[in-house]
User: Fold this.
Amino acid sequence: MQPADPYKILIADDHAVVRAGVIKAISLAFPDALVSEAGNAAEITRQFLDSVPDLVLLDISMPGRGGIDILTDIMRDYPCTKVIIFSMYPEDQFAIRAIKAGASAYVTKDTKLTELVEIIRKILLGQRHISPAVADLLFNEIHQKGTKPSHEQLSDREYEVLRMIASGKAVSEIAAELSLSVKTISIYRANILRKMNLHNNAEIMHYAFKHSLVG
Assistant:
């Protein structure tokens, strides 16, 4: 009987310290695994061209393209790859969008590394991981009655821009952070205002804080 191929695991996070800590924990737990890393969307693409990973631990806040956009591309082009979203944001801000986009788990960065390793082990075995907090959100999503909150009409990128506006960032700052043009961000802002029947940034901020969309 031929030995199974070693797992290929990609750690995609723009913080080198985070990557180093996670890589160390994974390498200890999976000594035969081939662990690689990426700090932005372009590096993720290069890693996939070199060797398609079995699992990606993906930060939701990547320079350039956002994590949900990257997740969507991976699910479309490499459906056998499992993705765990690894985020500094609480579950109620992004988990539902991530699960709907195809993530096998949504894990916050305050999770202990030992617990993260067990979640990775579970996902590699073909299972999903739904935390109690995410389970509650999914239950509410299924059983929600009446009109859904306005922000759920937004695309993933529009939702990301809304949160950045609500945190006080100017259009030029958002454009630089997302590696997009000021014109493109202005279009996203206009779409947000139109879809949500809002009129200015102050109303965006008020809405976001009312619905706990920013920390």
Remarks:
- The first strand starts at residue 8 and ends at 12.
- Residues 23 and 110 are 16 Å apart (CA to CA).
- DSSP finds ten helices and five strands in the chain.
